[in-house]
Amino acid sequence: MCDMKCLTHQVKNLLDRLWGKITAGESCLKTAVESRDFRLGDILIAFGQLTRDQLNETLEQQKYSSKKVGELLVERGYVKQKYVEQGLRLQQIVISAALGTTVALCGPVTSEAGSSFATLTATATVKSTARMTVKHQARQFVVTGENIAQGFLEVSAATRIEVRNSSLFGYIISFEAQEGPFQHVVVSGLGCEFHLGSVDSWLLRPHVRGTEVLELTYRFILKEDARPGTYPWPLLMSVAAV
Fold this sequence. Notes:
Elements: H1 4-23, H2 29-33, H3 40-46, H4 52-62, H5 69-75, H6 81-106, E1 130-137, E2 140-143, H7 145-150, E3 152-165, E4 171-177, E5 182-188, E6 194-196, E7 201-205, E8 211-222, E9 229-232, E10 235-241
Antiparallel strand pairs: 1-3, 2-9, 3-8, 4-7, 4-10, 5-6, 5-8
């Protein structure tokens, strides 16, 4: 949706705004999250994939439809399906990250009897960093005639990395796809199946204390004109703290 620097900046802004609403006295996380900043349409606007006018037109149409905003945005040609999916994923993970941060920074929260909510106060200035150490990475992959007949190639445990991240908001892991005999890639080992297209893809990972070890398996969905052969490894990875 944008480059890594832009992405980390936008995610940090979303998390900062959500944290600000909580510490300002929102009665609960749900109330803060339901504010306009964290709805799908506004997340897509923040990432430059949608205009305010397009969103308003779609919201007006939704009044007479049972479909979700994301479906209508795709139908109207305003946003591609992959960006809707990334926006929804970001929305969910931002909420989870903010909830984890609330607990991590504040610990148990107490309030006076009769009060409807507790006031949270936390002040810290820490430069966040994320560092990835590659323990193993396949350098190439081999496509056989059998793989072409099946339509896919699976490479198990092709990547093993260690990530140390100091940001309580988590970190972004980014994949850059190079040219190859595949249409898209399914990555396992990240807690869910992660689908990579022919463009750069990213995933927001939650904060983990200490070192997080990830071992990744890849399923390459081959192109119809793929040919047998040995190909250089087509994916580049990087991490950035939020």
